Amino acid sequence: MTVTVKDVAKKAGVATSTVSRVINDHPSISDATKKRVMKVMEELGYVPNIAAQNLGKRKSNAIGVILPPLDSKERMGNPFFLEIIEAINEEALTHNLTTAVATATNYEKLLDNVKKMHSQRQVDGFVLIYSDKDDPVIAYLCEKNIPFSLIGQPYRQEDNIVYVDNDNQLLGKHATDFLIENGHQEILFITNTIHENIFFERYFGYQKSMMMNGLPHHQSLNLIKPEDYEAFGDMLAEKKYTAAVVIDDMFAVRVIQLVQMYGYKVPEDFSVVSFNNSIIATMVHPYLTSMDISVQELGKLGLRQLVKSLGDEEASSLRMVIPHKLIRRETVIDLNQV
Questions:
Q1: Which of 17, 145, 151, 313 is most enclosed, with most CB atoms within 10 A?
Q2: What is the mean pLDDT of each run of 10 residues along the chain (338 residues)?
Q3: What are the structural domains, with CATH classification, of the chain?
Q4: What is the pTM of this model?
């Protein structure tokens, strides 16, 4: 037999409205009454209907995690997304929140998903885990004043948006510095995305390092279309590039495969440094030298900042920067020792 609010009220000697107020921790109910009612609830084994409570409060106790459009198998398989979702979910549980993921293959469908999640009150706010210069989703969230936090650096409204990020420009600089310290001078920056902020920031860091060391920096090598891959082989044959900074681990694996396909060895002929220090870094040979960006901290702090906004608390800071470190493995050769 199901225990109801009426059963609790009858045994506790109070009105059903009082039981509801106790469940919602209403300040008008005395501590003594709360203790008495909660004791009866425990004795009867009454479990409050959380969904009904949230409906009354117009809250869902859930947050949405928005991924960028997953428009290729590479993006769908990128372990960064799974790692950061897991970190957000773990932190959400400590706040008694559940998570729902919004994703699609393009921005139009993604925006539709976000709109439905918000209008149907499936979630109370969002954590965005990407930053794209032409993103309609972030524009919609800002326009409708929907609570959200961003993992990444916004393109606009930096003074109004709460965001958690690494210093990606410094990441790019440190990765390039490491190659230069190991005797490399002809260094490329290779990417498969040119819209997201991490590309601009990491590429700027690469340029800064090269200029500060008196070395010529090169236009970023954008391997996006099939013909780009063919051009890469020609570039390797024409000029003796000895190393590359690659946008992330997942794509670095593809770059290493290409280099080997064109008859070169990694790291003997061509060294590689990438970013994220994901599980991919130690699943292939040679093991990837990669910049650890503390994905767990990014996810957890992104969620905490959103929770503060939902609770009408001010975020600790509009911008929080997560430290990084280089994990040296097998994809960089020291030319000073050759």
A1: 151
A2: 82 86 77 88 76 53 94 85 96 94 95 93 94 91 93 86 95 98 98 92 98 96 90 88 97 96 96 97 95 97 92 68 97 94
A3: 5-48 (1.10.260.40), 62-167+294-324 (3.40.50.2300), 168-292 (3.40.50.2300)
A4: 0.79
